């Protein structure tokens, strides 16, 4: 499974922020767990990440449906969208 962490050289400038993300340094397994698995570790890493807000905004703007983005799970992002942020 490919994730937002798979950056190729020459990635578009609007995705350059991903290179600074803590998830890019830890690997995608925490952020794309198997269904029913805990996202606690991913959220802990996100909480320490300096670009968490940018990541969350990207996920909401691009309707990312899987994984932990900006410290929120899929379900939490759906709820945020439903309530109008």
From TrEMBL:
- Does the keyword field hold Metal-binding? yes
Question: So which cofactors does this thing need?
Answer: [4Fe-4S] cluster
Compartment list? Cytoplasm
Membrane-crossing residue ranges in chain numbering:
none
Changes after translation:
The Fe-S cluster can be nitrosylated by nitric oxide (NO).
Note the InterPro entries from the entry: 4FE4S_WBL, Whib
Alphabetically ordered keywords of this record: 4Fe-4S, Cytoplasm, Disulfide bond, DNA-binding, Iron, Iron-sulfur, Metal-binding, Transcription, Transcription regulation
- PANTHER family of this UniProt entry? TRANSCRIPTIONAL REGULATOR WHIB, TRANSCRIPTIONAL REGULATOR WHID-RELATED
Q: Which HAMAP family match?
A: WhiB
UniProt family annotation: Belongs to the WhiB family.
The UniProt function text for this chain reads:
Acts as a transcriptional regulator. Probably redox-responsive. The apo- but not holo-form probably binds DNA.
Protein name as catalogued: Transcriptional regulator WhiB
Species whose genome carries this gene: Streptomyces thermospinosisporus
Annotated gene: whiB
């Amino acid at each position: 499974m490919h994730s937002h962490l798979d950056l190729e050289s020459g990635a578009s400038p609007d995705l350059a922020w991903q290179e600074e993300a803590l998830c890019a340094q830890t690997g995608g397994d925490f952020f794309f767990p198997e269904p029913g698995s805990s996202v606690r570790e991913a959220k802990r890493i996100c909480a320490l990440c300096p670009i968490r807000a940018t990541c969350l905004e990207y996920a909401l703007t691009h309707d990312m449906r899987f994984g932990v983005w900006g410290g929120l799970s899929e379900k939490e992002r759906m709820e945020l969208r439903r309530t109008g942020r």
